[in-house]
Each structure stands twice: as structure tokens, then as C-alpha cells.
Amino acid sequence: MNQKNSKTVFCTLTGRPNVGKSSILNALVGEKIAIVTDKPQTTRTRIQGILTRDAVQFVFLDTPGFHLAKNKLSDFMVETVRQSVVDTDLTVFVADASRGGSPDAGELALLGELKAKGRRCILAMNKVDLLEKKEDLLPILDAYSKAYDFESIVPVSAKEGTQLSVLLDEIASFAQEGPHYFPDDTLTDQPERVIMGELLREQALRLLEREVPHGIGILVERMSDREDSDIVDIDAVIYCEKESHKGIVIGKGGSMLKKISSAAREEMEKFLGCRVNLQCWVKVKEGWRNRDSIIRMLGFVKE
Ligand SMILES: Nc1nc2c(ncn2[C@@H]2O[C@H](COP(=O)(O)OP(=O)(O)OP(=O)(O)O)[C@@H](O)[C@H]2O)c(=O)[nH]1
Ligand SMILES: [Mg+2]
Question: What is the pLDDT of residues 24-61, one digit of tens each?
Fold first, then answer.
């Protein structure tokens, strides 16, 4: 890469839970590096995704959905959002077009914070594939543009890939001249071990119901290549908050744990491109989402 022409842009993806921030990150980077579920508060930490397109390197920060903190883990998540928006050149504010209408109280609060910090924002109005008629989009975009002086507004669908190249071009216009921060083939800053834990949590979120999945934390205790074959051994502990939750995670005769771990193993094999031997244990840590030591042990460390 010619150092003279190279450019980099740091960009934070932010917005309410479940609007599709992680889906947009994965679609932009072209690999699944952040987990996605239909439950809010899927993302817990800031996840860096990197895309290098010709001279421009994009460094995206995916963040947890902005919400009212209810415990110490949520405090950490909300603080991560606040920190991430000041660390970058640009914010992409993601909203969900299918919710219809105007920004809700949480969105207005977040936009208020962005305004106070004088942040430059692009609005990515996601999930346009769910709208019945194209015309339905106009009043929505109008309502959002009254709430913030966006640099630009791009309706997108992460699911169908619609208009993502337009979004990328908009983001690229904020790139600053300078050397790339990462080797051009880098996709993420997350270690493989962390991604494996996230893939397991994704399946737990997907398969479990009600309050159980949100109280789950994963620790990958071991990840090692076998010398004699193309198999990776992964040992993981699924922490939950109550003895009763442990029973639900394990299920009748171990059926739920089997379901979760075999679905996770498939995702792990897809990511690593080799066979995986996954062993999962379930342990209880009462109220861990309010316990600093356990929050730290599970990798939620303030920067
Ligand atoms: N129809 C449709 N669904 C989408 C689109 N983008 C995301 N979704 C779905 O919306 C849900 C939430 O997606 P995520 O990417 O996990 O949302 P998020 O904003 O990262 O959520 P948190 O991490 O919980 O804040 C998932 O079920 C996605 O499949 C889209 O463009 N169209
Ligand atoms: Mg997410």
C-alpha cells in the first residue's frame, strides 16, 4: 500500500438494542464476527471489525444496544457505548424502520448525548425490507432528521444487503489520510477463543427463553489443536445466575445442553474451518451480573 494515499476511518455503530448493528457490521466486513440474535442485548462489549477496500481502511466499532442499565454488567455495556462514540471519527446511528414512526425515548436520549458531544453522525435506517411500501419510509426519515442534524441518511437492509455500498461510500468520505492501523487482511481484534465463547452464547440466547439467556456468561477455559489430527478441543463453562436456571440450561436428561452445544459446535466448525470437539459445563454464580470479580473474569474489562 502506498503510504501517501492510504486513508483510515474509525466509525462507531450505535443505536437501541436489536436494531441490527451487529448484522450491519457483519455485512460490511463480509464475515460473521459479531453474534446476532432476535433478542435485545446480544452484544455485550465493543467489537472491532476491520475492512480494507483499496486505499481506505474502515475500522468499525460495534457496541451494545443503548439501554437503561439494570445491573453492573449493563453499566459496563452502556459505558462502553459512551466511550466508543468519543473515540472515533464518525458515528453511524442505526435505527429500525420496521418499528415505524419516530425516535423513541431511548433514541432521543442517545441522540441528545451525541449532540452534546458534537458528534458527526450518519443515520442508517435498517430493516427496510420489512416495509410494505417504499413510501412508508419517508415520514420515518423525516421524523428522525428532525431529531438530529445527520451528515447523511441511508436506508439499508443488512439482511438483503441493500444499499450497504452506499453506506460504505458515505463512511469513506470521512476517512483521514494516514497509514492503515491494521494489516490489510485483518477482520477483527477479537481473539478466536473469545469468538468461540460468543458463538456458544449465541446458541444459548437463541434456544433458551425468558430471563434465562440474559443471565448467561461464557468462559472458554481451553482451546487447543490436537497434534495428530485436524481437531480443535474446546472446553467451555456456561455460567448462569440461579440453580433453577442451571436445570433449564441442562434440560431433561441433558437434552437442552446437547442442543446448544451441538449447534454451537457447528458454528465453530464453520468459523474455524476444521472439526471441533466441544465440551460444555454449566455452573451457577448467584447474581454474577452484579459481581465485579466475575464480570472481570468473563472478560468485561474497562479500558
Ligand atoms: N428483516 C430484517 N431483519 C434484520 C435486519 N438486520 C437485522 N435483522 C434482525 O434483527 C435482529 C437483531 O439483529 P442484531 O444485529 O443482533 O441487532 P443489534 O442491534 O446488534 O442488537 P444488540 O446487540 O442486542 O444491541 C436479528 O434477528 C436480525 O436477524 C434487516 O435488515 N432486516
Ligand atoms: Mg449487537
Answer: 999 999 999 999 999 999 999 999 999 999 999 999 99
Question: Nearest-CA neighbor of 124 among 158, 78, 160, 147?
Answer: 158
Domain borders along the chain are 7-177, 192-297
Q: Concatenated DSSP letters for 270-301?
A: HHHTSEEEEEEEEEE-TTGGG-HHHHHHTT--
* Residue listed under C-alpha cell 468461540: 196
Closest CA to 77 of 136, 14, 120: 14
C-alpha cell at 108: 432521543
Mean pLDDT for the stretch of residues 63-71: 90
Ligand 1: residue of 14, 36, 81, 203 to mutate (most ligand atoms within 8 A of CB) is 36
CA of 286 to the centre of ligand 2 (A): 25
Q: What ligand 1 atom has the least distance to the C-alpha of 26?
A: 15
Residue with CA at minimum distance from ligand 1 atom 26: 38
Rounded distance from Cα 241 to ligand 2 centre (Å): 22
At residue 2, does pLDDT exceed 70?
no
Cα atoms in the 13 Å half-sphere on the side-chain side of 295? 17
> Which ligand lies nearest to the CA atom of residue 213 in the structure?
1
Q: Within 6 Å (CB) of ligand 1, which residues are found?
A: 17-23, 36-38, 40-43, 64-65, 126-127, 129-130, 157-159
Total-model pTM: 0.94
Cβ atoms of residues 182 and 57 within 8 Å: yes
CATH code at 192-297: 3.30.300.20
* Predicted local distance difference test score (pLDDT) of residue 27: 97
In CATH terms, the fold of domain 7-177 is: Rossmann fold (3.40.50)
Q: Which three cell numbers stand for residue 148?
A: 438530529
